[in-house]
Amino acid sequence: MTELLVLHAVRLKGFAGTADVAARFNLDTEQTREDLLDAQAYGWVSRSSFADLTGWTLTQTGYRRNETQLRDELDRTGAQPAVTAVHERFRPLNAQATRLFTAWQLNRADTADTFHQLAELAGIAAELHDLEQALTAHLARFTGYHDRFTRALIEAGDDPAWITGIEVDSCHRIWFELHEDLIATLGITR
After folding, report:
1. How far apart are CA 122 and CA 118, in angstroms?
2. Count of Cβ atoms closer than 10 Å to residue 148 Cβ
3. If we measure between CA atoms, which residue out of 110, 85, 97, 122 comes closest to residue 173?
4. Coil, strand or helix: which one is 68?
5. How high is the mean pLDDT in each 10-residue block of the chain (190 residues)?
């Protein structure tokens, strides 16, 4: 199971340092480092640097390995119907969230719009709570999306970067990660 979580964390993050990979599923950082080195030896991950950032990414072989792990997990847990049902409920929320994130990025000057956008995002957070409950009844690794999203909304009261920023665990980043988690788990594309 730890191998699945490590590879899946790299997939969800896209590019992340060892500590961030470990933090995604509350894994031990030192053990995660060892697991990543093993995965690198198998050709499942690669380590690269850009400027002052160093991180891990999945290779194509790593994607295929993670896809197999996720398929096996669905078979073992019988979670396919539940995850499919959540994905169906997620799709209209995703359209709403995408519209809100785009509007936020394009027009930050209108205070009235900001208030309404934050209220809509709070509604999405409430829906996310129910989606997460349905998922975690079968797959505990989906735990935390609602708390992270809600925390980002609270932080946005002081710093708007928490809605769509890339340097923080923003609402947009969390939503994108959940979307990737759902489609990866189901073995479908966007």
Report:
1. 6
2. 18
3. 97
4. helix
5. 94 95 96 98 95 93 96 96 97 95 77 81 96 97 97 92 92 96 92
